[in-house]
Each structure stands twice: as C-alpha cells, then as structure tokens.
Prior knowledge:
- With 458 residues, the chain is of the alpha/beta class.
- 38% of the residues lie in helices and 20% in strands.
- The chain has 16 helices and 15 strands.
- It is globular and about 65 Å long.
- The protein starts with 18 loop residues before the first helix and ends with a strand.
Amino acid sequence: MRSNAPHLDPGGPGMMRSVAELRAAARRVFAAALAAVDPRAAMRRHLRVEGQWLLAGPARFDLPSLRRVIVVGAGKAGAAMAGAVEEILGDRVAGGLVNVKAGHTAPLRRVRLCEAAHPVPDEAGVEGARRMLALLRDAGEGDLVIACISGGGSALLPLPAEGLGLPDKQEVTRRLLACGATIREINAVRKHLSAVKGGLLARAAAPAAVLACIISDIIGDPLDAIASGPTAADPTTFADALGILDRYGLREKVPAAARAHLEAGARGERPETPKPGDPIFKRVTNVLVANNTQAVEAAEVEAKQLGLHALVLSITVDGETREVARVHAAVAREVRTFGRPVAPPACVISGGETTVTLRGEGKGGRNQEFVLAAALALEGVPGAVVFSAGTDGTDGPTDAAGAVADGETCARARSLGLDPQAHLDHNDAYPLFHALGDLVITGPTLTNVMDLRLLLIG
C-alpha cells in the first residue's frame, strides 16, 4: 500500500502546507505501519527451519523426532499466520483448524479455516472450538501443536464452560463491551466462563508440546490476556471476574447461569484455570511475533522519510475515547501555535486502544469516534489533520477501519445538514464520515495490533 504522497522539506520552501498533502501523508504512514506487522513476515522472522531443527524464540524442536505437527488457533490474523506455518514447514504439517473472523481468510493447503462472528461470538465459533479440542485430545507426546493466536481470538474461540450456553456468553460479552470495560477486564471474565481460554487449550493439548505464536492486540502484550490466553497461565480468578462485574454494576444484569457459574467458582466449587507454575506449561512455548510497538515505530520512520518531524506520544494510550481525543487535539494546537513538543511540519503518533461507553444507538467505532471528537476540538484550526484507524481494518461493527478529519470537517458536515456534536452524542460517527467521504476503508488486513492515531500539522 504505497501512495504518491510528496516528499517534504521540513525547513525549506517545499514545506508541506496543504491539508490534502497532510491527508495523503497520513494514509501513507498508516500503510507503512500495516506493512511492519504483516503476519506472514512476522511469523517468518520468528519461526524458521535450520537443518533438522525448527527454531522459535528460545525453543528448538527436533523435526525428525516429531510424529505430527498440528496447527490450531483463533484470531483475525489466524489465516495468514497458519499460511506462514505451511510455507515454513510444508508437508510436515499434518493438518489443523483455525477459527477466523468471517472474511478474514487466506488460501491454505493443509489447515482448515472456520469463519465465525466477532466481537459477539456465534455457533460457528463454538463448533470450531469443539473440533479444535477434538484434534488436541488426539495429540500425543510425540506431537507438536502450533497455536496461531491473535487479537479477536476471545470472541472467535467461544466454547462455553459446562452448564453454560452460547446465549449466556453472548449477553455477557455485549454488556461488557457496552459499559466501557477494558479488554483485559473483559477477557478476565471470558476466561472464567470458558472451556478453552485461560490456559485450557494448553491443558487439552497435553502431553503434546505446544508452540504458540502470538500477535498482540493489548497494551503491554500480556500473554495471559491476548485472545484470553488459551496457552498461557492465568493469574486471574473467579473472584476477580465477579469484581469486574461489580465494578460496572453488571452482576445482577448478566444471565443467571453465568452469574451462578462465577459465584460457584469463587466458592471453590469449580476448578480454577491453570495458574503460573502448573506443570502443563513445562512443554508450552509462547512467542510474541508482532505488536503495536512495531507498527508505531514503522509509522515514525515513514513520517520522517516524508520530511515530517515525527514524535511518538505514547504506545500505551487507553481510556475513554472522547477524553483521549481532546488531549490529542490539545497537543495539535500546541504544535501549531507554539511549535512544541515538536516543530511543524509534524507527525505526532500514538498507539494503544481506547474504549467507548455507549450512550446512543448510532453506528461507528472507537477510531471514528476519536476522529469526530478531535475534529470538534480542532474546528477552525488551519493545517491540522487527525487520523485514526484499527490495524485489523475494522472499527466497531462497520466496514471502516477508521476516519480522517481536519479543521474544516465540522463546517463541511454542517453544510450537508449534519450536526457533528449530535452524531458524537449518539455514537454515530460513521454516517457523518460516510457522507463526507472521509472513512478509512482497507478491508480485512489479516493482522491486529490495536490502533494507530496520527496528528499531522503543516
């Protein structure tokens, strides 16, 4: 994804000034960030064959001694990751199954794909998880299970714990998503309603060796929280899960079966997820192959190559989207007015993932909402562009990855009879940006390392 965006001279007469140039540069910077976290390339950087050995992170596997290599997994990048395993190991792959978001597919020879729903799980995901566990129960000590784990895996690997049904998990997921809970909080609850998350996939694969290749979509790259940690020890407990429901006033609002399951677990009446030190993890290797840091660093390099003064604000941005947007807008005004913390022409970059507390019933996602809130705060500011997009190509339940705006966006919207503040109040950014032609639409990128936000100031 390259464009003909102009090369810029930060100090000379060719300095980038027009909003059109800034918008083009934003898209080019985003494309460079996506290229840096391409799943196939990431897998090849961390997984390779040398002679008789398969090398992955700190682990070495003697290929001639393996009976079979089985590939499983879940996540938006799962298809591309499994494709890389097939390319690296060829006919050594005996088969496997990976659950992916509908439409996030790639051609595979030996590994089958199960397309399922995200972010609210569906029966297709449940059936895929059941078939995956059946494969793992047949795995023996001489087998190697390669698990391809990426963001989205929590919803795409939704096998409910005994006594629970899919509707119970769907309702819990909907309520947690709507209340503004963080992804780590959501996943702590999911793990304790699941038969496969929180290290239980690794338990099912024992005594086979497990190599999990992981693409992170969570700040700080906590292996136990990415896709709800199906191959990682779980430091959270049933009591923690109940505490999260209480924090958001949800204990009495979630389905009775889910509440009873968690309360029984907190009383010690249900087995906990495997904890750090559990013997099952002696034959488990977890390798992080891509994360948001790599995307942000690639964006910084590309911005500099375009002649912009690049500044990474943070790679750990979280919190309520609208508040984060106002802070970013304040930074843009500071750059524009005072030339600090970086002199224009500038590209200020941040990574991470914010949350949205739903107040209306509109259509949008956290990136579109971020851009709309920032556009309102930057109204009338010349030479400033704000861009935000999800690296998975999806923002909320829409076909857009995000949006782009500038100081004239709100005026343009009003000229079309649209009220930007009303659209923000109703979590309804998508229709506004669709009318303006300012949605960022990439289609499925087959990766997922959270979001990238850009402020470009001419």
